[in-house]
Automatic annotation (TrEMBL):
GO BP term (any one): potassium ion transport
Subcellular location: Membrane
Organism: Halanaerobium polyolivorans
Classification via SUPFAM superfamilies: TrkA C-terminal domain-like
Spans traversing the lipid bilayer: 6-39, 97-127, 139-164, 176-199, 409-439, 451-469, 489-510, 530-551, 572-595
Classification via InterPro entries: Cit_transptr-like_dom, DASS-Related_Transporters, Na/sul_symport_CS, RCK_C, RCK_C_sf
Alphabetized GO MF terms: monoatomic cation transmembrane transporter activity
Protein name: SLC13 family permease
Primary subcellular site in the record, as a coarse category: membrane
């Protein structure tokens, strides 16, 4: 075997392990690839220009542009307005609500990148479920799955489609057209919708009970205690800040109550008096020390949303979700000075099924993590406007701007039509859409960098040169030849299913875009060696990469609903496995029917 092939295979295995264990952020791992390829170019044959070609790739530019266009549509408030209509249409029926979620998330994800679609729908679904006294756990995985399948209805529905089209264009001279696979995508969405409505909703558990109060949902009652300053307490005459410093154990003071008035933001310099109530967060084992050492009395009632709410300071409990690409990913609250920056108090953090109430400042955060915090109206408004967070505890009250809705949707339609009619390539039409968003004031110039999910851009820029190395070293051809040893045993359709299955496995482990870059060159070489239709193999890889339902880390939208739904890892496995098996058969069969092998 050629040394270059051996090196690339070892590099692929190393990257797969790194993507699974994720010792550092995946986009940073990806950015190391161009450096490695150039330093080892005596094996990889990759030049410095080729190593950085991912940054100038038409796929990278198009995906970045579509993020901006999606942001312009989002800012118009059209999705929020739609959510309020869904609430009225569904009445008390959970199955109607599920139907509308699948319908509108699926359709919308075909034209707006599916990641921001899920980001917009999470607070809508959480708010509607709360008002209907339904469990959000019954709706959030279906929301993610619907957006994933809806993204397969057009070229611009997901970054995976655009990336696959770019690779296909470079290898065969012709990429996907705008509506190349729309009929197959709609079929997948229809099958997925039927499955979720009839079977999936019965499999999904109610991880978050509909009637549970938010303090109970996050189990903060165990760690929040209301205390009273007694006459003999050593804390009398000290400021709240001094009192906290005097306690030699981990404790946070959440609220000061005095004569019926509740203080949140500006109580640290207030001097403690007899009869003051302090709501504190600490481990239950420290409560006895509070009583003995500081002569404090513990009330029998547990703090609730109402007791933590302050009308005077407009304080309330709120849940925020970290979006995919949030600046907090891979960092701790202390590192970014979060509490001081946003003037709030963190009560609990949910990471998937895990709840944390202690030493939260040292927890490394990931996309999909949910933070329960107390904050004022101004802070909540800031968080809502910040694309790094989703305020998920209530329906958004974003103002609906009809003129901006018409303008932003017209710009999107222009982008789609120009590309669909082959007047200009999608890269140029999407860049034109970005300019139009600014000219029409749907977005301000300084909002453009914030609209782009830089994690995805850096991931693609780092991974694209790996595809070049696989081609130049012959690794893709070698891997294809190994799979084609099954040629004498399996029919061409079965081989297509094998590629679909392998891509699904990789996508569930290392993500959609990485699996496309790994598997598409191999599939195209296999098609060439067999004399089969390369478009059919490209479509199988594309659909498989965006249909990875089995793990929360397989797709960014799965990660985004993981925490808000309170899901366990196995919820994705058991809910997604039947659908995964259905599509494993259906997609290759209809690719053969529509395009032929």
């Amino acid at each position: 075997m050629d040394p270059g092939i051996i090196f690339i295979i070892l590099l692929l295995l190393f990257l797969i392990v790194m993507f699974i264990i994720e010792p550092i952020r995946i986009d940073i791992i990806a950015l190391s690839i161009p450096v490695i390829l150039v330093l080892t170019n005596f094996w990889t044959q990759v030049s410095p220009i080729e190593a950085i070609s991912g940054f100038s790739s038409s796929a990278t530019i198009t995906i970045g542009s579509m993020f901006i266009i999606s942001a312009g549509i989002e800012k118009s408030g059209v999705i929020q307005s739609l959510g309020k209509k869904i609430y009225k249409w569904t009445g008390d029926s959970d199955i109607k609500l599920l139907f509308y979620i699948i319908l509108f998330a699926g359709i919308t994800a075909g034209f707006i990148n599916n990641t921001p679609v899920v980001a917009l729908f999470i607070p809508l679904v959480m708010g509607i479920a709360k008002r209907k006294n339904s469990s959000p756990s019954k709706f959030l995985i279906p929301l993610s799955y619907a957006a994933m399948m809806g993204g397969l209805t057009t070229l611009i529905g997901t970054s995976t489609n655009i990336l696959a089209s770019d690779i296909l264009l470079q290898r065969t001279g012709e990429g996907f057209s705008m509506f190349e696979f729309t009929h197959l995508g709609l079929l997948v969405l229809f099958i997925g919708a039927i499955y979720l409505l009839l079977i999936g909703r019965k499999i999904l558990p109610e991880r978050i009970k509909p009637e549970v109060e938010v303090t109970e949902k996050f189990n903060v009652g165990k760690y929040l205690t209301e205390t009273i300053i007694r006459e003999e307490s050593s804390l009398i005459g000290k400021t709240v800040r001094e009192a906290k410093q005097q306690m030699d154990f981990e404790l946070d003071i959440i609220q000061l109550q005095r004569s019926g008035v509740k203080y949140f933001e500006s109580f640290f310099n207030k001097t403690l008096q007899v009869g003051d109530h302090l709501i504190v967060r600490t481990d239950p084992k420290n409560i006895l020390q509070l009583i003995k050492t500081h002569r404090m009395e513990i009330t029998k009632k547990s703090p609730t949303r109402e007791s933590l709410y302050s009308k005077e300071e407009s304080q309330n409990l709120v849940e925020i979700v970290l979006t995919y690409g949030s600046f907090l990913e891979g960092q701790t609250l202390e590192e970014v000075n979060f509490l001081e920056k946003y003037d709030c108090t963190i009560l609990a953090i949910r990471q998937g099924e895990e709840l944390t109430h202690k030493r939260m400042g040292n927890i490394i955060l990931k996309a999909g993590d949910v933070l329960l915090l107390t904050a004022g109206k101004k802070t909540i408004a800031r968080l809502r406007k910040n694309r790094n967070f989703i305020v998920s505890s209530e329906l958004d009250d974003t103002e609906y701007l009809p003129s901006k809705v018409v303008t932003s949707l017209a710009i999107l339609a222009g982008v789609v039509l120009l590309a669909a009619l082959n007047i200009v390539p999608i890269t140029i039409s999407s860049l034109g859409g970005v300019i139009a968003m600014v000219v029409t004031k749907c977005l301000k110039p300084n909002e453009l960098p914030e609209a782009i999910n830089w994690n995805v851009i850096f991931l693609l820029a780092g991974l694209i040169p790996l595809g070049i190395a696989m081609d130049k070293t012959g690794t893709a051809q070698f891997m294809a030849s190994q799979i084609l040893r099954l040629e004498g045993i399996l029919s061409p359709l079965m081989i297509l299913m094998v590629f679909y299955l392998l891509t699904v496995i990789f996508a569930n482990l290392i993500g959609n875009n990485a699996s496309v870059i790994l598997m598409l060159p191999v599939a195209l070489d296999a098609a060439a060696q067999l004399g089969l239709n390369p478009l059919a193999f490209a479509l199988a890889i594309t659909f498989a990469a965006s249909s990875a339902f089995l793990t929360p880390m397989s797709y960014q939208t799965n990660m985004m609903v993981y925490g808000p739904g309170g899901y366990k890892f196995q919820d994705f496995l058991w809910t997604g496995l039947p659908l995964q098996l259905i599509l494993l058969v259906v997609v290759p069969l209809f690719i053969n029917l529509f395009w032929g092998l």
